[in-house]
């Protein structure tokens, strides 16, 4: 089933009009004014499977790394590239509770999703990457769940917020090498219910992909055969 995503996303347009998430000036429905929008939009071509830059490879291609050893997920769709001013906004969102960024960046992600799912079916459910209960207590909210909540409303597909559980309290991953991240994340997740065949995993930022790889591994053991990753920013 192919949805008419364009009409779904824009049907609440008038009351959605807000100020720009980054500079505070006027914006359209998306939450960014035009100059800020061009500052955050991703330029260039990216691997359809892992989301890394393709450099000079042809459009629509999968990168060499994915050809050699594909990740457990089939596609990665990112709203933006994780660099200034996006990195700054995302840390404001997480550490200073600037939650207006969730709505504006999720709207950008929706635009990417509209393009991607034009001719292919949407996932049957959205699964946010969970925080460990200690981290959740410390922060007060799970940003991935808030992003997923925004998307579930706009796309009208269910969110399974309790399906995936973080059972290991991993240290902050910032600054760690890929191999250390992978080690930390081993058996970090547990799946609490059978999942539909096609799901979207939602995370705020994807860097090395260790978190979504480990979460995907668990989901694939519980009825899933296709995972798409949706994120606000990819490094
Ligand atoms: Zn602006
Ligand atoms: Zn790739």
Automatic annotation (TrEMBL):
Coiled coil: none annotated. Belongs to the ComF/GntX family. PANTHER family: DNA UTILIZATION PROTEIN YHGH (PTHR47505). This is ComF family protein. It comes from Kangiella profundi.
